[in-house]
Every structure is written in C-alpha cells, then in structure tokens.
Amino acid sequence: MVKNLFLPGFSQEKKEKNPGSVEFQVLNFTNKIRRLTAHLELHRKDYLSQRGLQKILGKRQRLLSYLSNKNRIRYNKLINQLDIRESIIR
C-alpha cells in the first residue's frame, strides 16, 4: 500500500485557518479515497475496505452537492483542482 499519496491542494496556512471548511474536508476524503483505491488494487477481496470506500465516497458526494448548491464558483474550482468528475445527480 502506498502511504504517501497526498494531494498538496491547499497551502499550510489555509489548513491551519479553517480545517472544517468544505474544501478541506473534500481534500481529505479524496486523499483517503485514493489511498483505499490503491489498497483495493492489491487486495481485491477486502470487502470491509470496499464498504469503507463506499461510505467515504457518499460523504464526499454529499459535501460536493452542498457546495454546488451554495457556491458554484468554489465548487467548479475545487473540482478542477482535485481532478474529480462532476456529478450527474445533484
């Protein structure tokens, strides 16, 4: 499993200012998703990790839909920055 799969999306100052922001939470979920995806490529029958991945995907999707409803400009910037596909269902 690759441990250092971190996306440097935001600067260190922004993390210290507001770690509860939607962008920061989506960044953390994206890092976890990419780590779990790399893990599941090696361990295909790890069903507990698959369930955890599905739960994290759902949480990130709910946060992204909240952000798209509240501020579309921040949503588009975050989607482009993290290289995430835009959701069809909002």
TrEMBL record:
InterPro entries: Ribosomal_uS15, Ribosomal_uS15_bac-type, uS15_NS1_RNA-bd_sf. GO terms for molecular function: structural constituent of ribosome. Transmembrane segments: none annotated. It is found in: Plastid, Chloroplast. Its main location: plastid. Keywords: Chloroplast, Plastid, Ribonucleoprotein, Ribosomal protein. One of its GO terms (cellular component) is ribonucleoprotein complex. Part of the 30S ribosomal subunit. PANTHER family: RIBOSOMAL PROTEIN S15, BACTERIAL AND ORGANELLAR, SMALL RIBOSOMAL SUBUNIT PROTEIN US15M. Belongs to the universal ribosomal protein uS15 family. This is Small ribosomal subunit protein uS15c. It comes from Arachis hypogaea (Peanut). The gene is rps15.
